[in-house]
Amino acid sequence: MLLFEQFNFIYVYIFVLAFMIGAVMGSFINCVAWRISHGEDFIHGRSHCTTCGHTLTPLELMPIVSFLIQKGRSRCCNEKISLRYPATELLTALVFVALVFKFGFSLDTLQFMVLSLLLLAVSLVDLETGLIPDGFILAGILNFVLFTILKGGMIFTGLLHGALGGFSISVPILLLSLLMDKVLQKESMGGGDIKLYFMTGLYFSIKANVLLVLLSCVFGIAFTLIFQSIRVGEKENPLAFPFGPSIAMAAMVSVFLAEPILQFYMSLF
Prior knowledge:
This protein is mainly alpha-helical. The protein has two domains: 13-103, no CATH class; 106-269, no CATH class. It has helices at residues 2-37, 65-69, 84-103, 107-129, 134-151, 155-184, 191-201, 206-226, 244-267. The protein is globular, with a radius of gyration of 20 Å. 32% of the residues are buried.
């Protein structure tokens, strides 16, 4: 009985720790994304209030907790704090817990934790600027390569499968995009979205990537209908909507549900 209780305590401790680390990392990525979107140095400098520039104290930087204590307002200027901050901190915390629950203590857990943070950064920057920095794409590729090497085994085969997955999703979309550009006489999809498809495609099989594309389209339509006020288009395409968050969400859903969804689909035949 005592052993069973200790076993449960360890798991509770691990999940709580994962939650706390996820919240902290979500807060950090929020800061990085905001600084990149507003042309600030995201490596140096202290965190500050985005309204009045006040340097934030440690008590004001506690993920989720600070927002609740301050009742959603900045202590320095009493301006409302965007719900984006506690929402993304909570989301990242829950994703970290879910990854630990699904993959346990493994390199897969760490790999997808890093991927989730990169996808969060991509989504936040894309929502504000309509752009997906190449640095995030490169970081996602390096994350895949690094963990493929660390996992050992048939490293070349793993890298090859990843490359096939990436190209299997990005090349058809690139060709379709070029065709639609000619038909519509305007840009139908940003280059950053296609690069993001390639990066996320590295982590999945070709079958799972087909599901990822379908999910991203569904999420894209849903986001466009729900958040109609969000537009990042330029003069030639004023109705352009940031598609990066849809790809990011589809990728994370695929991490958790691609296999059971595909198994269910194949069982129908």
